[in-house]
Write a structure and sequence with these properties.
Layout (H helix, E strand, L loop, with lengths): L3 E2 L4 E2 L4 E2 L4 E2 L4 E2 L4 E2 L4 E2 L4 E2 L4 E2 L4 E2 L4 E2 L3 E3 L4 E2 L4 E2 L25 E3 L4 E2 L4 E2 L4 E2 L4 E2 L4 E2 L7 E4 L4 E5 L22
Parallel strand pairs: 1-4, 2-5, 3-6, 4-7, 5-8, 6-9, 7-10, 8-11, 9-12, 10-13, 12-15, 13-16, 14-17, 15-18, 16-19, 17-20, 19-21
Antiparallel strand pairs: 21-22
Amino acid sequence: MATYIHPTADVAADAQIGEDTKVWHLVQIRPGVKIGSECILGRGVYVDAHAEIGNRVKIQNYVSVYEGVIIEDGVFVGPNAVFTNDKIPRAVNPDGSLKSPTDWKISYTRVGAGAALGANCTIVCGVTIGQWAMVGAGSVVTKDVPDYALVVGNPAHVIGYVCKCGERLPEGVDPATYVCDHK
């Protein structure tokens, strides 16, 4: 299979897109973006300048991935999920002048390998979502999420842990040493 870019997608000339990646309808990929191989970017996905997306990542429809976001390998991002990149967003400076790119600082966000982000979740910038963690639909992540943690709510809080296949683990089971027998 070869890389596929839908004719309605708007892809910057210097964006790096890996082998066998699929970029679907109305996707916009800005300059300096790095996307790995075997990824799927659904309809209406926006990938801001310099964002980084690993291999075998699935990003569902209408997700916004802003500059400063790093998504590691094997991550699932549900429909309408959104990342942020500015902890103190303002359109204007205190004197009323329009802010320019030099008037704000990017706060970086990392999503660990194998993590899954539910539909309509919001990831507030400056956090790390651990490997194989799962964020429930509609959750608002405001702080770091541990590896294998299952978080829900606003603000998102840990309600348990999951194995690599996503099944919830019984209380007291160490997710780092648990051997999953699911396929």
